[in-house]
């Protein structure tokens, strides 16, 4: 998993978010970017979602970003990442979430579709989505 080499982003220093060390850009979208990072206090790998600097100046986007964080904090499900922290620094707002290694949902769904064989949907009908994705990746049961 990673970001296409043609993606243009301003590199962030490892200490851009206090308490976290940004290690690698893993995704970029309309609202910002996601980095693999280490939570320094616990030494665990996390995902840090950064609101783009341009959108951080727009109160409506900041409200939407904070609403996303509040919504994640209320949800508990094996197919939804848990939020660890949220905050802001002098440049932007951020959400810290559990890190899930592997393909993005878009990549995983495309991979699963490519591997489907006749009758495979029936085999997977009673499996949770994360197991279906694991099967599509070729992970052992």
Describe the structure.
The chain has 141 residues and is of the alpha+beta class. The chain folds into 2 domains: 20-98, Phosphorylase Kinase, domain 1, CATH 3.30.200; 105-137, no CATH class. It is built from 4 helices and 5 strands. It has helices spanning 59-74, 105-115, 120-123, 129-137, and strands at 20-28, 32-39, 44-51, 83-88, 93-98. A 5-stranded antiparallel sheet has the order 1-2-3-5-4, covered by helices on one side. A hairpin with a 4-residue loop joins β2 (32-39) and β3 (44-51). α2 (105-115) crosses α4 (129-137). The longest helix is centred in the middle third of the chain and has 16 residues, at 59-74. Residues 3-8 have low confidence and may be disordered.
Task: Summarize the SSE layout with pairings.
Layout (H helix, E strand, L loop, with lengths): L19 E9 L3 E8 L4 E8 L7 H16 L8 E6 L4 E6 L6 H11 L4 H4 L5 H9 L4
Antiparallel strand pairs: 1-2, 2-3, 3-5, 4-5
Helix pairs in contact: 2-4
- How much of the sequence lies in strands comes to 25-35%
CATH architectural name of the largest domain: 2-Layer Sandwich
Task: Assign an overall shape.
Answer: globular
CATH H-tier superfamily of the largest domain? Phosphorylase Kinase, domain 1
Spatial gap, N to C terminus: 21 Å
Count all strands and give the number: 5
Class from helix and strand fractions: alpha+beta
Q: Report the CATH topology name of the largest domain.
A: Phosphorylase Kinase, domain 1
In a nutshell, what does this entry contain?
By secondary structure, the chain is of the alpha+beta class. The chain has helices spanning 59-74, 105-115, 120-123, 129-137, and strands spanning 20-28, 32-39, 44-51, 83-88, 93-98.
